[in-house]
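Support request, please re-run this one:
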Amino acid sequence: MKIQKNNINFQAGLTKQIRSEIASSNVKQISDYISKNGIPNDFKENKLIAWCSLKCLEIIKTLNKEYNLRLGLPKGIFVEDFHLLNVSNQQSAGVTNFAPCQLHLKNKTIFPEKTIFFNEFKGFNYSGGNEYWDRIDLTADANYDDKISATDFFMEIFFHEFAHAIHEENLIKRLGEDKTVKTIKKTLNPANIRCFREKNEKLLNTICEYASVNPFEAVACDLSKRFIENVNKNKLTIEQNFISKSPYRKHHFFLLPFTDTETNPLSDLLRKCWNGKF
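Re-run finished. Output below.
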């Protein structure tokens, strides 16, 4: 996801209590817990990224358990110097690997699909800290003001990348791994992206302008917005099944006529993107 920095003097939900909890967090303990959930990780001692990743994992696990959902989890979470990765925008704050491919340029490591990377921003350190992550609340406000993000909540970037993993899990279940990879490559063809934007930009811009970049960003922007609209900003918990009436619910044919769901042009488009009908 693209990240922007402006001078905006708001707070994006990063309360004093949350700041204190992040500051006192133990990265190794978080890393060990996430590893035990089958997710390899390396947070490079970044407490904010480790803590926010943990909260995203806990929320998704709770949704899956309480409401019998099957929201996918990432296959890895890493903080990395993006100069070592083959990504188109090295100033991105986060990126999700959508297909098993060669991303790491230094040692040729091949990462699996649904691997999330957060930018270490090594070139932006100051006074022993990191300007991008240390000022995530201001960055979140700036991104919202610039219509890059759908909300101004400081965890937007984290929900966004987890949403990519959730989306790809759904595609793999529906299409199979081989067809998913082919669909992704075809969809991200520059000509197809231009066509998608020309056709859907006005509609998707009602979420945020970044949502019209491609079908995957459309789902990630919208799904992360739904997470944030339903999260308790103090407890960072979700206490209702907001998926049930959304474009992301699982449709059972025999129940469909009796089940409320969103029916409008935007929801119809998101439902198609979610199911790989690009």
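The longest helix spans residues 47-67. Strands lie at 41-42, 76-80, 94-97, 101-102, 110-111, 115-119, 125-126, 129-130.
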